[in-house]
TrEMBL record, chain A:
InterPro entries: ImuA, P-loop_NTPase
Record Gene3D superfamilies: P-loop containing nucleotide triphosphate hydrolases (3.40.50.300)
Lineage: Bacteria, Pseudomonadati, Pseudomonadota, Alphaproteobacteria, Hyphomicrobiales
Protein name: Uncharacterized protein
From TrEMBL, chain B:
Keyword field contains Lipid biosynthesis: no
Keyword DNA damage among record annotations: yes
Organism: Mesorhizobium jarvisii
Keywords: DNA damage
Designated name of the protein: DNA polymerase Y family protein
Organism domain of life: Bacteria
Length: 341, 491
């Protein structure tokens, strides 16, 4: 047994080496299915790139919905920058709601630490200022646990975010930016990501009405609102009522996940996510849920043709972030034009 | 030559030596002066600018003593009690003041005396004189009545009875003087002679602690200033430790060689005495003010003052020597952000007892101590019953409710079917409500138009976005049609 354990160790070390040379190590290397497993071997055979911090067992924040967690290989990385996109400014409620649900999940573990929400004056004017009463009711975040920072300019917001991202005394940092400003480029996200990694705290970058850009964040999720199911009563669903908040999440970028879409429901009482149940709940819903399947036709066609991904990667601007290219099936969703909302 | 308007005539208010040489005098009419010398150059007086200049000089005089007061339009009082030894004695200090002012281009007269009144007289009527204690009478006796700081009317009436010098007034019996010329005359006299105390009210409150460094070679670089702040803060630390306090408000005064003074103040969330942290805060502040501070020829005096201090609690470190205090990290973080971006850069919400949504949360600048906006709850007071189902509140609220167009509602009191917000049309698929929220009548002036009630609806549009709308006013109730507003968004 001891020999096989040593052999397995060697195999993994070699694999790690190979992957390092190749430079494109996937987040996890599964042990071969047929490999003999020792009784004393840990069941977690995940090897994660970038240092030990990410390889710790609680490196991921499980969303709590199995298919999404599986797609993200365990959840959102805890010590990292995560981008959460909204297609239009008027989706700001859903985007902020999803980020706050994640913050609420984090606060369940990190009791007492505050959450800092940084935004530019522009986004707070356009999308509304966070309302502490609503956050308390919907996400269980007490007003004392909230800190806001409103920066007049994007540069200042980024500076505040960088300073905040390195703090271990904050449970999470939310940075909200509108549009695709030049300042928020690959370098800026890389700086944020590096600080979040060293502090071991998540930074959620909310980007309202933004196009996907090369980013250092390992995960990019695109959030759009989903119609809520009616409220449940003792006598069944209450027709015409608006129940728990629901979000449609699509994975825009992830090193491990395939593109996919998930409809989640936030349960404010338990402070957990539920996956939207099957069709029987939806049949009574007077509003048809918009199909967001990967191969759908865009409601508003983007200008220009959507081309298939060229097989050999051309050395265009995006190639600087090789791993950041959204998969081909995903592109159509991002190319819908922005509307002023 | 500078003119000012007095009554209906332009008169000379100030003039230089060359004008004086032409036999022109103050308070002479401009027309007369022009008639005598048509080529004189006359500038309109600007009392505001004079005032600013005097205040600038007062700031600069802060380097000698923290107690500087303005005196009328053209004088400064410096209370140098206990400060003279720092400059090598009274004479050396006076010479230093005069020579520095001369180099800055000011013609200054100074006097130093045990009482403000005597110093005033010495500066204006003797020039560069130091009066020791007990000499006030000898100083004042030969001086004209103007040296007593009395009103011109009193002076004129005193002169009319033959009292032309201060000595003559001092020699005269007091009771008739008081009866005839009022108490002010004797008050001024007693103050000048030191029989009565006269308080000089300083312009700025005196800092409880200050440390400063005179520099032989003026500094211009921000890095040098930061390093000096670190050195000064180290000195300050011992003083703060002795008093068991930490700084809450700090001010950095930079005295430029040519007299301009930059004053940089910053506040801290919790009492602070660590020089490293103080230096860090000023680093941020100086970085933010980089454009505003003009070093010019450099600063030759740097002073760090503690304007407000509070009791400092020592934190007990554990055996590894590490103090784990997350609050300190956040306080320092907030201080740094605020030092750079201003007081409102880090905010925190505070719940307020109000049912109006926009008043229910107050956004205040971050501070360590929890603020109470409501009186502390007493057990014997009747508590409002808590509802099991709290009302739904949005997660984002617009600063000002945005007007929306509602063409039609199903029922007069019901939710809208469509609405137009920010030029886009929305179709309402589901709605919950109304939740009626009345204005707070106890906060409104009688007859205020904004007193109408609001009916709030929770709306979901065709794409699943959830909004919080309200209708202000009622249909048919008042003469004007009710208006609709968008107030917030839900998750």
């Amino acid at each position: 047994m001891a020999i096989s354990a040593v052999a397995r160790e060697t195999v993994f070390a070699l694999r790690r080496q190979i992957a390092k040379i190749e430079g494109t190590l996937p987040e996890r290397l599964q042990a071969p299915a047929g490999a003999p497993l020792d009784a004393d071997a840990s069941p977690d055979l995940t090897i994660v790139r970038r240092g030990l911090a990410a390889a710790l067992p609680d490196a991921f924040l499980p969303v709590g919905v199995d298919p999404l967690d599986a797609a993200l290989s365990g959840g959102l990385p805890k010590a990292a920058l995560s981008e959460i996109h909204g297609l239009e400014t008027r989706d700001a409620g859903a985007v902020a709601g999803f980020a706050l649900s994640l913050a609420s999940l984090i606060l369940k573990q990190a009791q007492g630490l505050p959450v800092l929400w940084i935004g530019t004056a522009e986004i707070f004017r356009e999308a509304g200022f966070p309302y502490a009463r609503g956050l308390q009711a919907s996400f269980g975040i007490e007003p004392e646990q909230l800190l806001f920072s409103e920066a007049p300019k994007l540069v200042d917001a980024l500076w505040v975010a960088e300073e905040a991202a390195r703090m271990t005394a904050l449970a999470a940092v939310i940075l909200e930016i509108r549009g695709n400003p030049q300042r928020l480029d690959l370098t800026a996200t890389r700086r944020l990501h590096a600080r979040a990694q060293s502090a071991g705290r998540p930074v959620f970058l909310l980007r309202q009405a933004a196009e996907p850009e090369p980013t250092a964040a390992p995960v990019r999720l695109i959030v759009s609102p989903a119609p809520a199911v009616p409220r449940e009563t003792v006598a069944g669903p209450l027709a015409g009522s608006i129940g728990r908040p629901a979000f449609t999440i699509s994975i825009g970028k992830s090193r491990t996940a395939l593109p996919g879409q998930f409809t989640l429901e936030w349960n404010p009482d338990e402070r957990v996510f539920d996956e939207r149940r099957g069709e029987e709940g939806r049949a009574k819903n007077p509003v048809p849920v918009v199909s967001l399947s990967g191969g759908r036709k865009d409601p508003a066609a983007a200008s220009g043709a959507v081309l298939a991904f060229p097989a050999p990667r051309s050395s265009d601007a995006i190639s600087s972030a090789t791993g950041d290219q959204p998969p081909p099936g995903q592109r159509a969703a991002h190319l819908s034009p922005r509307r002023a909302g | 030559m500078i003119s000012h308007r007095q009554g209906n005539a332009q008169r000379i208010s100030a003039l230089d030596e060359r004008a004086e040489a032409l036999h022109l005098k103050r308070d002479m009419g401009i027309a007369d002066a022009r008639a005598m010398h048509p080529s004189i150059d006359i500038v309109e007086a600007d009392p505001e600018a004079d005032r600013r200049l005097l205040e600038g000089l007062a700031d600069w005089c802060d380097r000698y003593t923290p107690l500087v007061a303005l005196d009328g339009a053209d004088g400064l009082f410096l209370d140098v009690t206990g400060c003279t030894h720092l400059f090598g004695g009274e004479r050396a200090m006076l010479d230093d003041i005069l020579s520095r002012f001369l180099h800055q281009g000011f013609d200054v007269r100074a006097g130093l005396a045990p009482t403000p009144g005597a110093a005033w007289a010495a500066a204006r009527f003797c020039g560069d004189r130091i009066v020791d204690g007990g000499e006030e009478e000898a100083l004042l006796a030969p001086l004209p009545l103007a040296a007593l700081r009395i009103a011109p009317e009193t002076r004129a009436s005193l002169e009319s009875v033959g009292l032309r010098t201060a000595g003559a007034v001092m020699a005269a019996p007091r009771a008739p003087l008081a009866r005839r010329f009022g108490a002010t005359l004797l008050l001024r006299l007693d103050q000048a002679l030191g029989r009565l105390d006269e308080a000089v009210s300083p312009r700025l409150p005196v800092a409880p602690l200050s440390v400063e460094r005179h520099l032989a070679e003026p500094v211009t670089l921000t890095e040098d200033i930061e390093r000096l702040v670190g050195l000064l803060a180290t000195t300050l630390k011992t003083d703060l430790e002795r008093r068991g306090e930490g700084a809450r408000t700090l001010a950095l005064l930079l005295f430029r060689v040519d007299g301009a003074v930059s004053r940089i103040a910053l506040g801290t969330s919790r009492p602070m005495r660590d020089p490293r942290l103080i230096q860090k805060l000023f680093h941020e502040r100086l970085a933010a003010l980089e454009q505003d501070i003009d070093a010019g020829y450099g600063f030759d005096l740097v002073r760090l003052s503690v304007l407000a201090a509070a009791a400092f609690d020592m934190a007990q470190a554990d055996l590894t020597g590490e103090v784990t205090d997350d609050g300190a990290d956040i306080a320092l973080f907030a201080d740094r952000i605020r030092a750079r971006l201003g007081e409102g850069a880090v905010l925190q919400p505070v719940a307020v007892e109000s049912h109006l949504p926009e008043r229910a949360v107050a956004i205040v600048p971050f501070s360590e101590a929890p603020r109470r906006t409501t009186p502390p709850k007493r057990q014997d007071r009747v508590q409002a019953p808590k509802t099991i189902f709290p009302p739904e509140r949005p997660i984002r609220l617009f600063r000002a409710p945005e007007p929306i167009e509602v063409p039609a509602t199903e029922m007069p009191e019901g939710p809208p079917l469509h609405f137009r917000w920010r030029r886009a049309l929305y179709r309402v698929t589901r709605a919950e409500g109304p939740e009626r929220i009345a204005a707070e009548w106890w906060r409104q002036a009688p007859g205020d138009a904004a007193a109408s009630t609001r009916d709030y609806f929770r709306i979901e549009d065709a794409e699943g976005r959830r909004y919080w709308l309200y209708r202000q006013g009622l249909y048919g109730g008042s003469q004007s049609a009710p208006r609709w507003f968008m107030h917030g968004v839900f998750a």
